[in-house]
Amino acid sequence: MARLDDLKNSPLFHDVPDEALQEALQVITERRYYAGQVILEQDAEGEALHLITSGVVRVSRISLGSRERVMGDVYAPGVIGETAVLGGGERSATVRAQTEVTTLMLYRTHFRQILRRHPQVLWNLSALLVRRVTFLNDELIAFGLNTEAALSHVFLSLYQQRLAAGVPNPEVLPLSTQDIMARISSSRETVSRVMRKLDAARMLTYTSTQVTLIDPDALEHVTLDEADVSAD
Amino acid sequence: MARLDDLKNSPLFHDVPDEALQEALQVITERRYYAGQVILEQDAEGEALHLITSGVVRVSRISLGSRERVMGDVYAPGVIGETAVLGGGERSATVRAQTEVTTLMLYRTHFRQILRRHPQVLWNLSALLVRRVTFLNDELIAFGLNTEAALSHVFLSLYQQRLAAGVPNPEVLPLSTQDIMARISSSRETVSRVMRKLDAARMLTYTSTQVTLIDPDALEHVTLDEADVSAD
Predict the structure, then answer these.
(1) Domain tally for chain B?
(2) Which of A106, A148, A159, A222 keeps 20 to 30 A from A30, CA to CA?
């Protein structure tokens, strides 16, 4: 059964008892989205979470002045919407399909029931939240250092996510200059300057629509060095 | 019993069965720290977490070039060290006592046993992690907007924590200009300029060692407006 395999592949349902999987199968709904379609909307009630079973989504936040801040991309088999479902509040961001996307949708009430009945799912959720806290802390630190550190963090985390998702050419990141500006809240001039520098150091090459990492390991180390000597 | 009350006050042990509290009482150790003492050290193994029962700690990260980035303060009854204990990795930050501090220390192995046996503790931990993810997301957004938004986020979150902790004069924040620079990774010039602006708008007053919020509600709203019209 394809849905059962999809469930087992999700970090939320990894290594859980069959009983929990069977319960989840009763209440999940498969959803399909076209590229560009909104899956979750900022400021709407957080009534459901989605297990992404194929495709890529982009998480972003739009402020009143209509400036868009991209928070990151999530690849299958990632999870979206779980914090609003648990926290009980409104969604703080909009999630939009970047490609064709399929998900398994799980309503808040059903999810909470499964968590109460199956501590292993709750354990998986905690592990996922710990990884997210660690990631966000790393991002705050990188963004606070300088643009090199911020870009390196963005590129390497996207690369690692693409590797884990098993997509072809994980080192070719589908990021335009505009995407990068929206991701790190920097001006075109700053982004262009640092991209030229990383290109000259043979860390990466780039075009107006994508960034290709040549030496991810070096990118990681150079950034740490840069971060520590720069006064920014 | 004072320790039992301290446990019940901790967000981790809120509303848990007596059995879980009794188990925890068997394995916790009370620790005392003087102001300035290191409680958890960056890059050390994450072997234990602490429930803060009195006092205030500061979480910071020091990079090789010895630049210090302050990640935030935690007041009693906060929890520190739980992500390294769960994630199994090294600590990403140093935690230092700002005042005299007492904690209840819980080793990783004991904590994991309690989580496995008592899903309500795991539930509390998930709720705590969800709040932290939400907070870090808000911080990334505020820091990405402009210095006004960053300062407002820092001041308001500290104020709310002081309110919740029941400390006297919660609106008087013990932050020097140096502290603020280390918290938002900004230059003295930038911090001074924005502080003068917030002072002129009667949002706050400040000296070299503290910031006093005059109108927290207005601070929140002004910041949102600023954030949306400013080009940064």
Answers:
(1) 2
(2) A159
